[in-house]
Amino acid sequence: MGWKISCWTFTLTRILIHKSGIPMKSLLLSASVLALTLGASTVSAHHGFGRFDRANDSVFTGTITGIDFVNPHAYLYFDSMDTGELVAMRCEMRAATLLRRSGWTQEMFVTGAPVTIYGFKHRTDPGSCYLEDITIGDAQELNRNDQLDMSAVDVSDRPMRLPNGAPNISGDWAQEQYVVARPADGARIGLVPKSMKAGIEDGSLGYDNIPDAGWGPPPVALTARGQREADAFEQWSVEDNPRLRCEPTSIIFDWVHDGPVNRVTQMEDRIVINYGLYSNERIVYMNMDEHPAMIEPTFHGHSIGHWDGDVLVVDTVGFKPGVIAPPVRHSDQLHVIERFRLEQNPLRLVREYEATDPVYFAEPYARSDELLVADVEYVKHDCDELTFEFLEFQNQ
Q1: Which of 117, 286, 373, 376 fits as disulfide partner to 60, beta carbons 3.0 to 4.6 Å?
Q2: Mean pLDDT, rounded, of the chain
Q3: pLDDT tens digits, residue range 88-147?
């Protein structure tokens, strides 16, 4: 379809290059194949690699001066003498929400500590970089996706139903984390679900066992207009990509992309859903049989829900035209049906969805995903976009 390869593909390539020493040509092929296996052949909504020179790895050294532990990207600041002159550097990291889930804390980045970063230079700004691996002082080197805390979440005391008999879907939920796995034979190094890490590393599981992360659009037949606009979509354009404007994407994409912690709160007449990465609140009205005749269009639409046995069925209309998942757009005729249900062993919240839009989809846009009880609490993080290329546009 002419869509750009996910930045996840190049993250895997970087890990392979740095850890294995395999020739670049072979690594690019291996990473591309692995990305297809992981469902990452569809485009990620990150904005990182479009601005950084991924063809040339670089090492940066210096002294930490501070950190902004924020979403959608944290930024580490350090003074460097790599060029022979003092340069105040800033290096882009993962979102604070994702760092917290991986056991990283703001306190790790001690002001005055020596730091070595392995990553990529910015294409135009000598004071910016992209962090792939980091060593702080004498600590162990960490990859940006490394998990520091592998403890399990205890759900033994969690009630399965509320006092009114409805399934208890309230609480904090997050997709299982994808962490770095390093097989003993070194054949492939990549991102895998946390529960599969040991199996991948000891060889009892293969990469063909890795489920689709759902971090891009599902395979879907588009209308001629839909295909044309998907092909023309610019991942690193603030005009095309809402995330670069510090705006949410869609109720479908934001639920799982990048593994945010989401919160569900069941009330008597409504269910409130808080999306983690951009702290957006959505209301599902449980006391309405039909949508209002007049709806003010929004990015999240107007949602009404009901219980069909133990399945929560949510019907949503009233969308502003937008992006359902980069590079796939949708019109104001988008109609989304979601079905949420609890499953056990492990306890998880499963969502099946089907979206229709006669302007952009030639067939239903459908997939399922699942979240586990979150390993950290939901924390409201307003979007604080510090990427200098996007600040002027954001503040207009």
Answers
A1: 117
A2: 84
A3: 999 999 988 888 888 899 999 999 999 999 999 998 889 999 999 999 999 999 988 888
Give the integer Cα–Cα distance in Å for 92 and 77: 9
Q: What is the pLDDT of residue 187?
A: 66
Alpha-carbon gap, residue 139 to 135, rounded angstroms:
6
pLDDT tens digits, one per residue of 248-301 = 999 999 999 988 999 999 999 999 999 987 888 999 999 999 999 999 999 999
For 161, the token pair is 């139903």
Six-digit token string for 383? 């979007």
User: How far is it, in rounded angstroms, from Cα 121 to Cα 284?
Assistant: 44
* Domain boundaries of the chain, sorted by first residue: 42-143, 175-209, 224-394
Give the domain 42-143 fold.
Answer: OB fold (Dihydrolipoamide Acetyltransferase, E2P) (2.40.50)
Tokens matching residue 271: 């269910």
**Could you tell me if 236 and 47 are in contact, meaning their C-beta atoms sit under 8 angstroms apart?**
yes
For residue 230, the model assigns a pLDDT of 97
Q: Which amino acid is at 53?
A: D
Indicate the pLDDT class of residue 6, thresholds 50, 70 and 90: very low
Q: What is the pTM of this model?
A: 0.79
Q: Which two tokens stand for residue 179?
A: 């962490």
Q: What is the CATH number of domain 224-394?
A: 2.40.128
Q: Please choose, from the candidates 318, 245, 355, 277, the residue with its C-alpha nearest in 3D space to the C-alpha of residue 71.
A: 277
